[in-house]
Specification:
The complex is a heterotrimer of chains A (about 325), B (about 575) and C (about 200). Helices cover about 35% and strands about 15% of the residues of chain A. Chain A is an alpha+beta fold. The longest helix of chain B has about 35 residues, at about 75-110. Chains in contact: A-B, B-C.
Chain lengths: ~325, ~575, ~200
Amino acid sequence: MFLSQGWRGIAAIMLSGPGADPTNIFAPAGTPAHSIFSLSLLVLSVTGAIFLGVTGTLIYVLVRYRMRKNSPDADQEPPQIYGSNQIELSWTVIPILIVVMLFLATTRVIYTTENARRPKDALNVTVVAHQFWWEYRYPSLGIVTANELHVPISDPKHPMPTYLTMSSADVDHSFWVPRLAGKTDLIPNKVNTMWIDPQQPGLYLGQCAQYCGVQHAKMLIRVYADTPQQFAAWVANQQRPAVDDTAVAEGREVFMHNACISCHTIDGTVATGRFGPNLTHVGSRDTIASGSVANNPANLRRFIEDPANFKPGALMPPMHLDSHDLDAVTAYLTSLK
Amino acid sequence: MATHIPFDQAHAPEEIGDKTQRKLWLEVLHEWVTTVDHKKIGMMYIGYALFFLVVAGFEALLMRIQLAVPNNSFVSPEVFNGLFTMHGTTMVFFVGMPILFGFGNYLIPLMIGARDMAFPRLNAFSFWISAFGGILLYYSYIGGSGLYGAGSAPDVGWFAYAPLTAKVFSPGHSTDYWTLSLLLTGIGTIGTALNIVATIISMRCPGMKMSRLPLLPWLYLVTSGLTFVAVGPLTAAQIMLMLDRYLGSHFFDTQAGGSAVLWMHFFWIFGHPEVYILVLPAFAFANEIIPVFSRKAIFGYPAMVAASVGIGFVSLSVWAHHMFTVGLGAAENTFFVLATMAISVPTGIKIFNWLATLWGGKIQFTSSMMFAIAFLFQFLIAGLTGIMLSVAPFDWQLGNSYFVVAHFHYVLVGAILFMLFSAFYYWYPKMTGRMLSEKLGKWHFWLFLIGFHLTFDFMHVPGLLGMPRRIYTYEADRGWMIWNMIISSGALVQAVATLLFVYNMVWSYFKGPVAGPDPWDAWTLEWATPSPPPSYNFAETPEVSSRRPLWDLKHPDDPDSDYEIGPSHRRRAKEESA
Amino acid sequence: MSDVAVAPSGANVAWNPPARGIVGMVCLILAEASIFIIFIVAYIYYIGKSLNGPTPKDVLSLPIFTSICLLSSSLTVHAAVSALRRGRQRLCSLWLAATVLLGGIFLAGTAHEWYDLIYNHGLTISTNLFGTTFYSLVGLHASHVVVGLIMLSLALWFSLRGQMHHHHSEKLEVLSLYWHFVDAVWVVVFLVVYVLGR
């Protein structure tokens, strides 16, 4: 009755297309995800064939050899058959052949993905996972940002992959953007690398895939694949010093005279903490609280008032600012475009 | 050597009538607490496991309510993280292990014609220390965080990856409860496994050579052997974790040069064989139940033994398929892909042999057999999704997603729990002297089957759509809601079916039809004793001369012992007709 | 009693399955061995990975004399078992006493080594990865020696009181198996900690 619903579900997803499901592994948009997708089609067809064969046999046997009350020999035991070496041998050898075939196909994808040749002009980004946010550092560009990763798109003719060098500041995490690549774990005291090469501009979503504590669920990932022009503009903006707008000087004072500065960095100020996200250009981001809510003054104010409003368990404590100071800090941070 | 199975008829009818002789409940309690009888200990294991099955099932229900819709706030993230940790830990260590050991304890001495286990007092000790471990784990809800009135359950996940378990990231005592309870249970587990091996090797009745050992004890032998080599690493890792937490050592302290990956290796060297420790007894039940309800001898006994031993050995070299995303390197990943795929060969052999046993039989669709057939079907699917996960690149996508959760629940529920239900319908008459209601059994079967497939078929889908496991809530825009809704509704159906089963067990204990010694017309030695068996099992030690001693008794003109020369001998009747 | 006999398929063969005590001990040894393997793997994995001193080269010296004592106690316990098997109880007591003495010397050696490491070299289990792995591995082995010594002392006590007889030789053999295992583990620990790791 429910024989094939799982498989029908898979078919439904594949038909529904990438638009509906932003994290569908069957809607690949980068080379690693593509090669996994092709391999998975092979694996699905082999296992699907085995499934149909064995289930068909099972149903046949159940119907054909069911106990019949009315047959003349109903009270007799059926002939006892103890086994057959030839049959045992055949259903040992055939699975071995299937395994060898799958193994070879798998090995090819492992090596082409893990040991891919790294182009000279590939962009390098260092990813440091924290409880419960992502730090992105672009050493060659002098940029440090958080939670929103910007990478250039990669033209298949001139591949421009982005290499992620990954580690963790505290516990284990895992970086997973299903449409771009499989996941890679970020482990303290260990450095892993992976690469992505989105080919269409756009936003690719994902989230932490290794349980890392209370707020594991809201450790979201946003990868922006920019056209070369967009990317250049983004880089130029990020490389500028922090905006210093006198209109929000009051909020700036509140920020600099509270504990904010021991965890956050704003370039060119006394705020040099590294425990929390770098806020130099926080106003230019689309989201706050590692992707959980849109970055607008109302949300930002609620977050500063008490981060648990959006992310219970976040390590940032409520700052106990009065309403006036909250407004001022919100205005200041919003100005940091 | 002749088959010689004295049946103690004088005792048989009394056993049920005896219930009229009321004892004080305190006497009954004293009798159970101090018992060293393998049957009583076996039933205590089973009762204890069923209790925790209901508890951990309830925890699963709470999680499914929370996940039914996105951004739900039915439980807090802290509570949710405790729930999945407790659910996983309980199901593996306080349901799976004790219930399988319970059946093993009860059945093995009976099936090999022994009067008790090799070490009855060790048996009682092992049970009670395991039981204490479970109680300790749940005490964490009261004493967990170590603060006055602020108890909390462990919330590090059932594989408790370092360094999340370090004092810095898990302050308080909830993680200590987890560690200690697993350490204690591990001791009990090793004790029972040791007992089972010694019983099977040393307590067999005369004539029961290893080549005549029923498949159930054979598979328990493999499972117990695996237990020694698998639970050892877990125990060692727990000791290291305790040293880290209490004495400030640095095994998994990444700040002092320690390695988080080392914990993963140690845990999964235990964790993967553990899956086979749990599933081999389910195979063992299938090996007894499928032949009886097909009215045929098991097909390919030697192949079944070889495949089980093969699974045991290969399962020790596949652990790092849980670690394909850890960054082990291409060569290491390739090795573990091959080892993992290789295990599908002996597993496939088992499925084919069960099919061949059904082939040509006269299949009786009792409740027990229906659960066994569903086991066969669902284990096939679990194996196939296992092959998908063994393909390392596919695992980079599927690992730690809901696809994996669906896959291993297909093994643990679809295969193991279904086979356990089958075993209950099959052996309950032996244990209590009463049959379980077949009518309720069919209802239980169909309801549970529908609930199971609603939940776990559809659970594969959010995994493919990028939903990671262990998140207490999810974003509304990911397209996961409809699937989670279906999954949660299936969980409710399963809960209802389980209650039906519990009701059946209670009702049948008092009102079920009287079973008699051999209600299924079966062939192994436990059916040569009254139901329930007397405390000494056999009035005289039986002697056997084939794998199916009761078949020999029932068919003296055509005994199995005539056909024990090689693996591929057909019945004489066939040869004569040819 | 109903009793259906089938035509005998051969003469009555003697039915002697292995002794359960021996089987049980072999199983226990398997489980214990897997625990030790994990600690040994951790030791080897962390050789040279400590972020600060002291290192094994600085502080460890070869415990040759105590190792000889422990290994030779394997011979004495074997002699005790075979003495009991031949029914010579007093000789058995003598050999058991020698075993307990040799094991005791080994334990005293370990205690002295630890005292020296802790008070003269400042190495504790929390100093560095070397301290962590050294104390846990050597300590795990030493705790097994302690358990073995307690059991052997009990056996000696019974033997001295004349309560140990010929038919107990299988039980004593089971205990001796455990003791041989403890000695064998020491060979590996010695090679790993004092030869490979130094």
